[in-house]
Design goal:
This protein is an alpha+beta fold. It has helices at 25-41, 76-83, 88-95, 131-140, 179-192, 202-214, 219-225; strands at 2-7, 14-19, 50-55, 62-68, 111-119, 125-127, 144-148, 167-176, 196-197, 230-236. It contains seven helices and ten strands.
Amino acid sequence: MVQNIFVLGADDSFFRYEYPSQLPQEVKDAMVETSRTIMSHIGFDNGAFNIEYFYDMNTGDYQLLEINPRISQSHSEMFQFVDGTSNHQIMVDLALGNKPDFKARAGRFACAAKFYLRRFKDGKVSHVPGADELDRLRNSIPGVDIDINVEKGTQLSAMIEQDSYSFDLANIYVGADDTRELLEKFRKVVEALPIEIEGEVSREWKQAALRASYEMVFLGDVFKYNHCDAAVTNDSH
């Protein structure tokens, strides 16, 4: 189960996927059982799907958001980091008529995340890293991969498929031993990533992105201390 986290108060922008979900086991078990009931009722069989729920940590209630008759490509790298195999393997096995043999937790890391590097105002991109720069960065921080979503000359306000509050400059995939290490690796990548905005000091807008990211809660602490300042959705596969 993958959890999606966005920060309330940061214009409700979405910041990361994290796998596996940190929600209490009884909550995850209830979501899985609900998913089985729904998919059996509609007669769905022999196909890949994901179901997304919204979970209210204050009340313990969860609500169905959507059902997709496909797997999520956004989750593939995280499954590779944690399980050692992409979730695409399940779809391939089903297409070949084979029973999926997916070995959970056989990967290099205990957890993984897909981070969205966001900027909260318009600007024109004046520099992006080349392939050699990205390779050096990947090699310097183990368990990291990076996709750049902009190029030199991109006007951020002209980008398509963006939310109403921010611009998604890069996607950063991270594997780690725990959530704190995930965030620390993300910080190191952001500080070293040579994306420049015309007429601005890169450190300033990067610090704004990192501040927003660090507002994301550690869910283990949330449940321990009964405090919540983030919203969570969960994809059940």
